[in-house]
Amino acid sequence: MRISIIGAGRVAYHLAKVLHAEHQLTQVYSRSFERAQRLADQFNMQAIHSYAELNPSVDLIIIAVSDQSIPQVIQELHHYVPNVLIVHTSGSTHLDVLKQVHTRSGVFYPLQTFSVEREIDWCSTPLFIEANDLIDQQYLLKLASSLSEKVYAYSSAQRLSLHLAAVFACNFSNYCYDMAKQVVDAQSVDFSLLYPLILETAQKAVQQDPRAMQTGPAIRGDQNILAMHQNMLNVMNRSDLSQVYTLLSQQLVERHQSK
Hints:
This protein is of the alpha/beta class. The protein has eleven helices and eight strands. It has two domains: 2-154, Rossmann fold, CATH 3.40.50.720; 160-257, ProC-like, C-terminal domain (N-(1-d-carboxylethyl)-l-norvaline Dehydrogenase, domain 2). It has helices at 10-19, 33-43, 70-80, 96-99, 134-145, 156-185, 195-207, 210-213, 217-220, 223-235, 239-257, and strands at 2-6, 24-29, 46-48, 60-63, 85-88, 105-110, 127-131, 151-153. The chain has an eight-stranded mixed beta sheet, sandwiched between helices.
């Protein structure tokens, strides 16, 4: 399959890396030509300066840019490649954003967190596809199945629910790790001592219902511990962490009182 990529960030990099092995990557465009050139050099692609240089005979164009940039990108792309299947990789952007402009449109969303310095296990990464046309959906299904063992044809509404859930499960939980590190750093305590606890909590979350696995002073109603923790945060002059601690504790109590 001949594929071009719009974007040169983390998602574009990882997609190019995995697609390069089985497919023909042709061109890459980015607002930063230097970034496009770096990606092109790694995966034997042509970096281009404008959409006007796009090859209209490719099989697929993947838009891997920020969500807010997608509407403008599809408006511009459509003029130069009106007959090419174009997909975005967003979890929260509705298919209609593409479909209202470009008939052959679709979604190719990997449910994963991407960092350039970390490898991705594509075989176990869920891929979600959607297309305006059944034939194009089968096309995307074939492509997705060449990368992952977990491929799903989900609607835009279903995909949005996953994206929201991912923010809680990934982005917010990672920020909780960050807050935890700030607390122990203030007392010169090694953050790695929390690694076994973090890993065990994650294991329980994927093996059992997270609600059933919840522990901690809030749901035990241990007011002494809650007050002690709040006092420590006040001494640290960390009203920001204190607010988060109070809100989450209150939410935990309300959640588990409703059992």
